[in-house]
Structure formats: C-alpha cells, structure tokens
Design brief:
Elements: H1 31-36, H2 56-59, E1 69-70, E2 74-76, H3 77-80, H4 85-98, E3 101-105, H5 111-126, H6 129-133, E4 144-148, E5 162-168, H7 187-217, H8 228-236, H9 239-248, E6 251-259, E7 271-274, E8 280-285, E9 291-295, E10 298-302, E11 309-313, H10 315-320, E12 330-332, E13 340-348, E14 354-355, E15 373-374, H11 375-384, H12 391-396
Parallel strand pairs: 1-10, 2-3
Antiparallel strand pairs: 3-11, 4-5, 5-6, 6-13, 7-12, 8-11, 8-13, 9-10, 9-12, 14-15
Helix pairs in contact: 4-7, 5-7, 7-9
Bound molecules: 2-oxoglutaric acid.
2-oxoglutaric acid (AKG) binds next to strand 6, strand 8, strand 12 and strand 13.
Length: about 400
C-alpha cells in the first residue's frame, strides 16, 4: 500500500498493500482511519477496473453539463395531507414509475432534528478510531455495526466509505437504545428523535403510495382517472389497513455514511452501483454532492436541496408493486477535497415477513412477476457473494 507515513499495527509498507487482505487487516479499519494517517495515493485495493470508474464527464455536474445534474420530482408533504392530496398522490406514483426517486420538501420535521442528525453522524466519525472501533463487528446481524465499503468481507475492490448501521425497533424507547453509541453526547436522543420522525414520514408516504398503486391498477368505471371507489373498497376489506399495520410494526435500518476526502476520486467510488432492499429509503445528505442515480442510461448527480429528503423506491417496493415502480441503481462519487456525510433510513415489513406482489395488483391479466422474498434471503445473498448491481432483484424475477 502506498501510504505517506508508516501505518502502525496494520503492518503494511509502501507498495505491498494489494497483497495483504483478511481479518484484522488495516483496510478493515476503514477509510477514515486511512485518511487520518495521510495518503497521497489511492491504495490498490480501492482502484476499480477502468470500465467501472466514473468517467470524467460524469463527475462534472455543473449546469453547463446539462444532463449530468438533476433535480428530482418534488413532493410537498404538507400538500399531501391537504385538499390537493389526490394530485400529490398521482405525482408520487409518476415519480416512482419514471424515476424511482423523488424529493420531499415541506415535511414539517424541525430543522434542528435534521441538523442534529448530520452533526451527530459527523461527530461520531470524527471520534478517535478506538471509540468508533467499539462498534465494529463481523456479524452482519449485529443491531449496531461500524464498518467500511459495501460488504467488506466479500468486496474484491473496496469502496471509499465507512458506515454506522443501527437497527431500530418499531417503537423506540429508552430500553431500545441501550446498545447505541453513547458518544458524542446526545447521540442517542438525537438519533432516536430522527428515527421516529422518519418512520412517521415513511408511513404517510407509504399510505399515499398504496393509494397511487390502486389508482394506477384499477381505474374508475369510466376507465380513467381516480379509482377512488376502489380505494374505499379495498379499505373496507381491510387489506389496505393490514399492509399499513405491517409497515407500522416493520423494520427500520438507519445507516450513517462517511466519505472522507479521497486522494484519487477518479479511480474509485464512495459506493458502487446498487439498489436498496426495502420499500423506501429516506436519504438526508449534507451539502456536498456525491449521490448519482442511473436515469435513462446515464449517471446523473442529485443536487442536495437543503432541508429536504431524497426518497427512493427499494427492491421490496418494486416486487410489491409487481414491477410497476422501479428500484433504481444509484452510486456515490468520492470527493478529492471535501468530506461528505449522509444518513439513510431504510424501511420495510418486519424482518421475518415475506414480500410478494400485492394481491390487489395481481390477476389473470397481471400475473405475479416475482418470487416471494424475505430479509433472510437478502442477507443470505449478500453474505455469500459480492453485491453486484441488481443481481438480488434479478434473482427474484420469475421467468416470463
Ligand atoms: O450517501 C448517499 O448519498 C447514498 C447512500 C446509499 O446509497 C446507501 O447508504 O445505500
């Protein structure tokens, strides 16, 4: 490995990094650890093959490069709960179909809840390595886990990203955050508040998304428009409410991502192209660009909009919608000079539940397109292989 100063206790010397792998290796300590020791050259272990590197023009999101930066469809959260609900439900449905991503503004979560969450995440990663390392675990099921890359046990090339993952119970109480980091001060309180606020936002959005799916699937008797009668029918049969109940008792995984400055960002990625496993991912990013989504065969940068959330459809929603909504590939660029922090909140059914196309959407004309799936089979998949693009989702598709 080409480090400027000798790396203690990793025992790696200049030029030898690529050969050294395995548990306890310096790379397992994460990229923050490496940058704290000073790096002029990217270690080979992070260098992607040329065809997987971001192309120079994909890295330039300035307005003159139109097409490489984009604003996502906007959803006004307050409007969703007012007299214009119907129109907003339809615009969410359209965004889920066309982009798989949308931006939520006017959500009512106090600004300080968001800024505290970013500050707590930044503060956590800025602590001495020994403090962060207390949460390192090779166990992928550990409810609190500090790690690096995407799947550090299996990745052949590592990503320029460290993370802290926290699994939140459906109802958060003091007892539930006993194992969460206690430092920085107020970490538990701030993260718990943020988790509760994002869970609420998820539930409101999912209700609108279920309505949108019914509207799209069952147009009204005139063959167009609302389908509101159908929504009421379904609600009467309590199917709709049963699904909402699964979400209320469902899983929530919070992931705090840290992307320190990278000596050669053109040779690597902060996160390689992937889709998310759940129904929805709610993403809060600081003001440093990095997130890109794959849209119309191009990588486009999602410009951070202060105080807003980027929301994306996950694999479970693609399956549940029987392929109507798209779980879209996204990736994160590394940055030469700036450190970046993001927080994602990934929501789904309870971990032990089965996800399959919604019975309301499946009939003779619309046969089920996906196999039943579960969190357990997703974990089996990522524990046994290097996650690659949408391989997991592909593996759930039934032959047509
Ligand atoms: O950092 C970001 O903007 C995206 C993070 C992400 O895609 C993830 O954590 O799955």
């Amino acid at each position: 490995m080409k480090v400027e100063s000798p790396v203690e206790d990793g025992g790696v010397e200049e030029g030898k990094g690529a050969e050294v792998t395995g548990p306890g290796h310096v790379y397992d300590k994460g990229v923050k650890y490496l940058t704290e020791r000073g790096l002029a050259v990217l270690p080979d272990k992070y260098v992607l093959p040329p065809h997987e590197r971001p192309r120079p023009k994909e890295r330039d999101s300035s307005p003159r490069r139109s097409g490489h930066g984009m604003r996502l469809p906007m959803v006004d959260f307050q409007e969703l709960q007012g007299p214009n609900r119907r129109r907003v439900v339809e615009s969410i449905a359209e965004a889920c179909e066309k982009h798989g991503f949308f931006q939520v503004v006017n959500h009512g979560i106090p600004t300080e809840v968001l800024s505290d969450m970013i500050d707590m995440s930044t503060g956590f990663f800025e602590q001495p390595f020994e403090e962060r390392a207390r949460y390192m675990s090779p166990d992928m099921f550990s409810p609190v886990r500090y790690g690096t890359s995407m799947n550090q046990n299996n990745d052949t090339v590592l990503c320029w990203r460290d993370f802290l993952k926290i699994t939140c119970p459906p109802t958060i109480s003091e007892g539930s955050f006993r194992h969460w980091p206690s430092s920085p001060a107020d970490f538990r309180k701030s993260v718990a508040r943020y988790a509760m606020e994002t869970k609420h936002m998820f539930l409101v959005l999912m209700e609108a998304i279920l309505e949108g799916l019914l509207i799209r699937h069952k147009p009204n008797k005139q063959g167009q428009g609302p389908g509101a009668d159908n929504i009421r029918d379904v609600r009467n049969r309590s199917e709709f409410d049963n699904v909402m109940e699964m979400f209320r008792g469902g899983s929530q995984l919070m992931v705090m991502n840290c992307y320190p400055p990278c000596p050669q960002p053109n040779l690597t990625l902060g996160m390689s192209p992937h889709s998310d496993y759940g129904f929805l991912t709610l993403l809060l990013q600081d003001n440093v660009e990095g997130l890109q989504l794959h849209h119309e065969e191009k990588w486009v940068t999602v410009h951070p909009v202060p105080g807003s959330f980027s929301v994306n459809v996950g694999d479970h929603l693609e399956i549940f919608s029987n392929g109507r909504y798209r779980s879209v590939l996204h990736r994160v660029l590394a940055n030469h000079t700036k450190s970046r922090v993001s927080v994602v909140s990934i929501h789904s059914f309870p971990f032990d539940a089965t996800v399959r196309p919604w019975a309301e959407l499946v009939d003779e004309a619309n046969p089920s397109l996906y196999r039943d799936t579960s969190f357990a089979c997703f974990m089996d998949y990522i524990s046994s292989s290097e996650p690659k693009r949408k391989n997991f989702l592909e593996s759930r598709k039934l032959p047509s």
